[in-house]
Write a structure and sequence with these properties.
The protein has about 170 residues and is mainly alpha-helical. The protein is about 75% helix and about 0% strand.
Amino acid sequence: MLKPRWDNVISEYVMQNKENFYRLAYSYVQNADDALDIVQDSIQKAISANTLKDRKAIKSWFYKIVVNTSLDFLRRRKKVQVVDETTIEQHSPGQIDHYVNIDLQQALNELPPDYRSVIVLRYLEDLKIEEVAEILDLNINTTKTRIYKGLKVLRVQMEDFNFEEAK
């Protein structure tokens, strides 16, 4: 019996789990097209890298690639020069919202990346703590601590929002 080709193994795995990888990338970049690009880049990196030693670990291995590709994208995007507010107003005199519209997704986006990564992987991707630790190259206790602190920060953010909304 012939062993399946490496690129076929990855392609099959990604096709079976494409919604999860897209959702993970989207949770980082908040843009549909960018999330699709990240998944595509991740597939390309996985096929060309061929660094997986144990095929049973493909799940955490590919999640790690998607997370790192997402973080690389965000780092590159930060290097883009931000235009000052006066210039923006000259080119686009739009209406200013006078209300705050915050939800869990916005609160997640405001978390520091270390906390956001563990929260997204643990609760939105429903991965085990051990898998999150492996994907992010962290100690299990560090992962637990970041989850705890991240949830604490989220709770404070959501309470602040509820308090401001009640005024």
